[in-house]
C-alpha cells in the first residue's frame, strides 16, 4: 500500500488542522493505520492508531483529548483532526500502515507516507 499525507501548514496556537492520508491499493481496509510525528532533533513518535474497521482507536497521552483519528475505507483515507494546537506540536507528521492493531513504535509499521509539515506559531 502506498500512502500520501497532506493537510499540513502554518497555524496559530489554539487553532486546528486536519491531516489527510490517502492510500492506494485495494487492501487498505485490512490495515490498521497510525500517525506519528518528528520534530527536528527528535525521534519519530507515536500519536494515534485506528483499527481496520475504525471501531478502535488509541492515542498518546500528549495528544489525547486534542487529536482525533478517523478513517473512511470507502475513500481509502485516514484523517487526523488536530485541535487546540500548541507550538510544541510543530513537527513533520507521518501516516503509516500496519497489519496488526495496537502498534505504537515505528518499527512495527510496514508502510509510510512521505510526511507533511505542521508549524504552530505562538
List keywords for this structure.
single chain; 122 residues; mainly beta; seven-stranded mixed sheet; four-stranded antiparallel sheet; 0% helix; 50% strand
What does it look like?
The structure is a single chain. The N and C termini lie far apart (37 Å). The protein has strands spanning 2-6, 9-12, 17-24, 32-38, 45-50, 57-59, 67-72, 77-82, 91-98, 111-112, 116-121. Strands 2, 4, 5, 6, 9, 10 and 11 form a 7-stranded mixed sheet that branches. A 4-stranded antiparallel sheet has the order 1-3-8-7, with no helix packed on it. The chain is globular and about 40 Å long. With 122 residues, it is mostly beta strands. The mean pLDDT is 95.
Characterize this entry briefly.
It contains no helices and eleven strands. With 122 residues, it is mostly beta strands.
Amino acid at each position: 500500500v502506498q500512502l500520501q499525507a497532506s493537510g499540513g501548514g502554518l497555524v496559530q496556537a489554539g487553532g486546528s488542522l486536519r491531516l489527510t492520508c490517502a492510500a492506494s491499493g485495494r487492501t487498505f481496509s485490512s490495515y490498521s493505520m497510525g500517525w506519528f510525528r518528528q520534530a527536528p532533533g527528535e525521534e519519530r513518535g507515536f500519536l494515534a492508531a485506528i483499527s481496520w474497521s475504525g471501531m478502535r482507536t488509541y492515542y498518546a497521552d500528549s495528544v489525547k483529548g486534542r487529536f482525533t483519528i478517523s478513517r473512511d475505507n470507502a475513500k481509502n483515507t485516514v484523517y487526523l483532526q488536530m485541535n487546540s494546537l500548541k507550538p510544541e506540536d510543530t513537527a513533520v507528521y507521518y501516516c503509516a500502515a500496519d497489519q496488526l492493531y495496537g502498534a505504537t513504535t515505528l518499527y512495527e509499521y510496514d508502510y509510510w507516507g512521505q510526511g507533511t509539515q505542521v508549524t504552530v506559531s505562538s
